[in-house]
Design a protein that fits this description.
It is a single chain. The protein is mainly α. 77% of the residues lie in helices and 0% in strands. α5 runs parallel beside α10. The protein is elongated. Keywords: Coiled coil, Membrane, Transferase, Transmembrane, Transmembrane helix. One of its GO terms (cellular component) is membrane. GO terms for molecular function: phosphotransferase activity, for other substituted phosphate groups. This is Phosphatidylglycerophosphate synthase.
Length: 336
């Protein structure tokens, strides 16, 4: 058997930044469970993923009953299901036995869990009260969960495309400038300030991307966020604190939304019947507010991208005019 320590688990499996719910309420337990699981069992990440779904289905069954003891039990099972869901990725990173199929399975089972628990929770309350508002609340929960995942995936894809285009153009400009300097007999090791700035703009954005880095890796600087920082200079002052605590600035993400609906709302409803809809509305409003911030930040980054690309393309055109015979060969070398 392996002999991983708790520090090994933290250094090799913790994300550099994560949701505050995960950092404060899940990781302390999950890390210890991962240590025991990794050292004393041969449980695989995919088995943990399946276990998380089973617990999620158990939570849904409790929600469907709808009475206060089952609401509390359902909330507990859902939180344990999410803890197992966090453990599968940690085990995969710790042991290096993750897979593409495992990542797909984790994503699909997450969506199934949210869908079934939303239907079960609201259906249980509808059967007890006859209030049709619970039906529409279930639709809203499923829609918001779908919306935030679609937004995250599409934003990630477009950012990757922007970086690829900037990178290809930067490399072309770099090659052309080197050729021009050689022709002029200048020092080819010097890099122009414009190209240096373009290169720094290609570094990773830890917030907008999938945040799959772990502690111990050096986080890169932000990509194409100059406009955002100019409009919100206070953001730079809170970043160091959030970085130290591993809490990401996206304070109300899909994780907090899920926990608000499937943990906080059932617990409150056990003490105060009728609390599920107001709590879900608050959770949904928080999710929408932060998603709008992400969209706004992404819009600013597209403007930064357009300006950076225009400068690079202008540089390329000027160098091509100076070295017309070099263009075909250089274009072949830098085309992605």
């Amino acid at each position: 058997m392996a002999n991983f320590t708790l520090d090994d688990v933290r250094q090799r499996t913790y994300k550099a930044r994560d949701a505050w719910w995960t950092v404060l309420l899940v990781d302390p337990l999950a890390a210890r469970l991962v240590k025991v699981t990794a050292n004393r069992t041969n449980i695989t990440p995919n088995q943990l993923t399946v276990g998380a779904l089973i617990l999620g289905l158990g939570a849904g069954a409790c929600f469907l009953v709808g009475t206060w003891p089952y609401l509390l039990l359902g909330a507990l099972l859902y939180h344990l299901s999410f803890t197992l869901d966090c453990m599968d990725g940690k085990i995969a990173r710790l042991k290096g036995n993750g897979s593409v199929f495992g990542a797909w399975l984790d994503y699909i089972f997450d969506r199934i869990r949210v869908l079934l628990c939303a239907i079960a929770l609201m259906a249980g309350q509808y059967l007890i009260t006859g209030n049709v508002a619970y039906v529409w609340t279930a639709v809203a929960v499923v829609f918001l969960d779908m919306l935030r995942y679609m937004d995250a995936l599409e934003t990630y894809k477009v950012r990757a495309q922007m970086r690829a285009k900037l990178n290809a153009t930067r490399l072309e400009a770099h090659e052309l400038e080197l050729a021009a300097r050689r022709l002029r007999g200048e020092d080819v090791t010097a890099v122009s300030e414009e190209l240096r700035a373009a290169e720094s703009a290609l570094r990773g954005d830890p917030e907008a991307d999938m945040e799959d880095r772990v502690l111990g890796e050096q986080p890169t600087h932000q990509v194409l966020q100059q406009g955002f920082h100019e409009k919100f200079p206070w953001y730079a002052r809170i970043r160091p604190f959030l970085a130290r605590t591993r809490i990401r600035p996206h304070l109300f993400s899909g994780i907090e939304f899920q926990m608000g609906v499937f943990v906080v709302a059932p617990v409150l409803a056990a003490a105060a019947p009728g609390a599920i809809i107001p709590t879900t509305v608050v959770a949904g409003a928080g999710l929408l507010a932060f998603e709008l911030v992400i969209i706004y930040k992404f819009w600013l980054s597209t403007r930064d991208y357009s300006r950076s690309l225009a400068k690079l393309e202008g540089k390329v055109e000027a160098l091509r005019a100076e070295l017309p015979e070099q263009v075909p060969l250089l274009a072949q070398r830098v085309t992605p």
